[in-house]
Design brief:
It is built from twelve helices and 16 strands.
Length: 405
């Protein structure tokens, strides 16, 4: 992620406009390729060596902000290690202590200080099979500039430029006081992905249903809090890639910018063309659910099944169930959630919430592979435990029992 000093923006009255780049620009693609080449060939090299090589073609001043930003994003994709044969901190303690004694003795005996002899003596004292040169190299191996690259998560020049645009927007969100997002006409699966991301990143958020199959998310920014602002701001920035998977959205954030922290407005929408760097697993449908839909529609006649139900507004927030069952004669609706090994959720809390806020309207299908510690809770007839795949007949039996049909 970009640091504040690397962010490129322009000011338009009270608005902050990030200076996005064009990912298909030939000149910028060449610059990105040049920086990528440095990191692709960086295996085994130190941060300091990489920085020295980058200085050869990164100009000073404002013109260097873009290439420095691209380099920072590449560095974030590297894995570094401390390359030392002995803990550097312990080695420094031993060497510095021995060097102080050796210098004092050399001064009293009017002879020069022998650094090489000190390093060789340390190897003997610590029973190390290291040469003086190896000890010398290990002394400061834990400093950031001396850490060595062990891997680099490569990407294409165009992907790097796209990632840069997202990083600009993320850097602004680190400094926001409040953010409002409107998401339009998405599938239930996409809404579910978005709402789960809010919960996963532990964001302070209120969600409201708005006209036109849309939702408004109001999120507190890190600068509206009194503590842990950097950690919360990072979580807010990490939420952005999930939002970018939505086709139609409108984001407006209040930003405190500059040393004086003046209030500015930042606007982002799907029309800006930012592409999420995160893999899109949000709309993945497990095979178990696909089989359930096919079996239900082939076997069940008294109920219809909607595999893309509309999000449900509950007093505690939005719930997006997996299926909606509707009884053909009475119109009675029952909502179904399926919990397989792919779901990461607190089953007990989810059950308690639905039993309190949607009594008699839900069925939870829980796989034996789903590790649910029942603890003190006693699950009622709304919970159906299945082995391999949920059986439509059993789900309908419970739905009819709840509906008194």
């Amino acid at each position: 992620m970009l640091t504040g000093k690397l962010v490129r923006v322009r000011h338009a009255k009270n608005r902050l406009v990030p200076l996005y780049v064009e990912p298909t620009d030939a000149g910028l693609l060449g610059l990105a390729e040049q920086i990528l080449w440095v990191y692709r060939s960086a295996l085994g090299r130190t941060r300091g060596e990489i920085d020295d090589e980058l200085k050869d073609f990164i100009p000073e001043g404002p013109r260097g902000l873009l290439p420095l930003g691209l380099a920072k994003l590449c560095e974030d994709r590297c894995q570094f290690e401390i390359a030392a044969d002995y803990p550097p901190e312990d080695l420094r303690d031993a060497v510095f202590h021995a060097a102080a004694l050796a210098r004092a003795q050399a001064a009293t005996q009017h002879r020069s200080f022998d650094r090489q002899a000190v390093l060789t003596d340390i190897a003997t004292r610590l029973s190390l099979t290291l040469t003086a040169e190896q000890i010398d190299q290990s002394l400061f191996a834990d400093l950031k500039a001396e850490q060595r690259v062990v891997s680099f998560n490569d990407l294409t020049p165009e992907q790097l430029l796209q990632r840069y645009n997202v990083a600009l927007a993320q850097a602004l969100l680190l400094r926001c006081t409040e953010m409002e997002v409107r998401v339009y006409a998405e599938t239930p699966a996409r809404f579910r992905q978005l709402f789960r991301a809010v919960k996963f990143h532990r964001l302070i958020c209120t969600i409201e249903e708005t006209p036109g199959n849309s939702y408004k998310l109001t999120l507190n920014g890190p600068l509206s809090l009194f503590s842990s602002t950097s950690k919360y701001g990072l979580q807010l920035a990490l939420f952005l890639p999930t939002l970018l998977h939505c086709k139609a959205f409108d984001l407006r954030a209040n930003i405190r910018w500059g040393t004086q922290r003046k209030e500015k407005l930042f606007h982002l929408s799907g029309l800006d063309g930012l592409k999420s760097p995160a893999a899109d697993f949000g709309t993945y449908t497990p095979p178990e659910l696909q089989l359930f839909v096919e079996a239900f529609r082939a076997k069940i006649r008294d109920w219809t099944l909607n595999a893309d139900p509309h999000p449900i507004t509950l007093p505690s927030g939005i719930w997006v169930p997996d299926f909606q069952l509707t009884h053909r004669k009475t119109g009675r609706e029952v909502l179904v959630d399926v919990f397989g090994f792919w779901r990461k959720v607190d089953l007990e809390a989810h059950y308690r919430k639905l039993r309190h806020e949607a009594p008699g309207r839900f069925v939870l299908c829980v796989s034996d592979q789903f590790r649910a510690d029942e603890g003190d809770v006693t699950y009622g007839p709304e919970v159906y435990r299945y082995k391999r795949n949920p059986l439509p007949e059993e789900v309908v039996r419970i739905a009819e029992q709840l509906s008194h049909l």
